[in-house]
Amino acid sequence: MATNPLRGWKVDPSLVTPVGVDLKRPECVLAESGGDLWVADARGGVMHIRPDGSQRLITQQTDSHFDSTSDLHGRFTSGTLPNGLAFDADGNLLIANFGTDRLELMQRDDGRSRVLLDTIDGRPIGKANFVLRDARNRLWITVSTRINPWTEALKPGIDDGYVILLDERGARVVADGFAFTNEVRLDAKEEWLYVVETTAKRVSRLRVAADGSLSGREVFGPSSLGAGSPDGMAFDAFGNLWVTMIMSDRLLAITPEGEMLELLDDGNAEATAALETHFAAGTLTMDVMAKAHGTLAPWMASITFGGPDLRTVYLGSLMGTTLASFRSPVAGMPLAHWR
Questions:
Q1: What does the pLDDT average to over 90-107?
Q2: How many domains does the chain fold into?
């Protein structure tokens, strides 16, 4: 059996370099094989970072599918907050919008946008968090909660999150009962769907049938990943699942055997301890949360593999103005858009 390249390896903070400038809530990052990066931006769109380092902010603009949700300049303004991103088959941006509570499609050249999904079974979908496209061009969409305000769901014991599948048959709920559903990923053969349960501090997985139905739900790795809360994740080519722990700002990996490896701890120990105490007691506030963060990727939220060899790692964050970047000893698993 091959030796796991992550065993005994850790991120060297001195080798972490910033990428991009003046980013605003760079929560999710998409990398293309040519070196382009596309980063979610709280100003209502994405930041395109070119291989030469130049960048352009592309904001969502209305088209005929939008109505009174735009301002006089055609900008989408109804609380937009792009969160999870994916490319559609044409290279345009699929946006799980945490502000508008819907799935949107934005043209990569000019920002023209339209709504793809905002209701399910006749009800608003709730707090849309993430979107993933698979090799069959199906979309997996996560909804963290239907509770309004959503911050009331940031406590133990609430499990109203769910997963939507959107394919040629339309949109349908394929799994529910998750504790603040966050990112989802498929393994290399797309046999299992992995689901981050943020407030349960765990990753669960379900077997994927040919028709997209899910079954056999189980916890993958430890039942609790420890301090902080899991947010984003990505597979590498060996089969390790890298996981970001927001607020404690830890980077973990779960091996194919389910063992947890800690690759980086950039958190503030005292603030993290207070965070954990309040979370367990159900007394967590935004003030307590705001004090818990590191410096490399404050409120570490996502992880993406890029570069020509897929060995450059980018960390997205909610409080950062750049992306943290470093080299990995193993390549990432290519996503559906990678060519």
A1: 97
A2: 1
